[in-house]
Amino acid sequence: MTIRDITNHIEEIAPLSYAEDFDNVGLLVGDYNTEVLGVLVTLDTLEETIDEAIANNCNLIVSFHPIIFSGLKKLNGNNYVERTVLKAIKNNIAIYATHTALDNSKVGVSAKMCEVLQLQNTKVLIPKKGIIKKLTTYVPYADANNLREKLFEVGAGTIGNYDNCSFNVEGRGSYRGNEHSNPTVGKKGEIQYEEETCITVTFENHLERKILSQLFQHHPYEEVAYEVITLNNKHQNVGMGMIGEFESPIDETDFLKLIKSTFKTGCVRHSKLLGKSIKKVAVLGGSGSFAISNAIREKADAYVSADFKYHEFYKAEDRILLADVGHYESEQFTKKLLVDHLIKKFTNFAIRLSEKSTNPIHYI
User: Fold this and answer.
1) Inter-residue contact 152 to 136 (CB < 8 Å)
2) Residue 20 contacts residue 100 (beta carbons within 8 Å)
3) Structural contact between residues 197 and 217, judged by C-beta atoms closer than 8 angstroms
């Protein structure tokens, strides 16, 4: 089994195309073709994480946070990032990071927060734009059904809770091949008119290679007429944060006690209590101050995230309860999420959950 086998399965729930442009995800250290001896799953990759991997004979670390975030100009071991990368290379240990690819997954970081809080009727808080593409192609009427089915097989035409979605228009196409052509229907040098179906399907951008491969393999024409464009539509099942509801409203103070206990944090920093019960809750793992306005717009009673700055608490404006549970604390369940996903696929393979806490923040 190779690293690519492992990462391909991770990317079924967290395609790298889901990641934000500023991020650094994927295989940061190593070769995709390396045979995997064991996998260690962690939130952060530090020197002690490399030591843990060595001790457990794991040559692949699957990390949530990328140890290499911005460019490295030197590898002299002058800081913790360089020392970690050097130690990984010296010991033939690969490092793979998911970060915002998993943040934007419907079953990712924020979904896990909803799960531990037992929120119901969940949906994405900030649906992501620019990851839906549209394919339009033209095929002889007699071949349209087969081509459509082949495109559906690899994920084309899936929209939210629906699949096999397409739009089809029948019409008359024309073409003429030159002396080097080998037309499937008609003769070279002669104009051919053919009854055709125009098929339009949408798909997530990470599926483009598979879909075009299927198109070229099953389209009968020598020269396939097609176009692919990126849509500006929001993807309702991909994006940052989640929002859901408690089965029954809960008192504000009890809510704060609940999240302190659930996220095992030393303290919860929060905005002013508003004297109302909490029913609808927005969550976002990691630094989430950018989504305060989204939580308010969705009429959440409370918003649970991390790394709120002093002035950002003013943005509550007596409309929402903001609760900062800590960066590590909000994401701590992520590594278990990844382990559970991998174990379902690779049942007889060594996949270990890191036992090290990499939280750099301590409370007194």
Assistant:
1) no
2) yes
3) no
Residue reference for tokens 């649970």:
304
Q: Which residues contact 47 (CB under 8 A, 6 or more apart)?
A: 80, 83, 84, 87
How big is the CA angle at 49 (ends 76 and 348), to the nearest 5 degrees? 130
Strand 351-353 relative to strand 321-324: parallel, antiparallel, unpaired? unpaired
Average pLDDT over residues 57-78: 94
Question: What are the tokens at 311?
Answer: 């002035």
Mean pLDDT of all residues belonging to the chain:
96
For tokens 């419907």, the residue is: 106
Beta strands in 16-71 (DSSP E): 26-29, 39-42, 60-63
Q: Is residue 364 over pLDDT 90?
A: no
Beta bridge partners of 29: 95
CA-CA distance, 29 to 126, in Å (whole number)? Answer: 31
Judge contact between 35 and 2, C-beta under 8 A: yes
Q: How many residues does the chain have?
A: 364
* Beta pairing class for 302-306 and 278-287: parallel
306 touches 330 (CB < 8 A): yes
Query: What's the pTM value of the predicted model, to 2 decimals?
Result: 0.91
123 contacts 243 by C-beta, under 8 angstroms: yes
Say yes or no to pLDDT of 35 above 90: yes
Cα–Cα distance for residue pair 340/338, rounded to 1 Å: 5
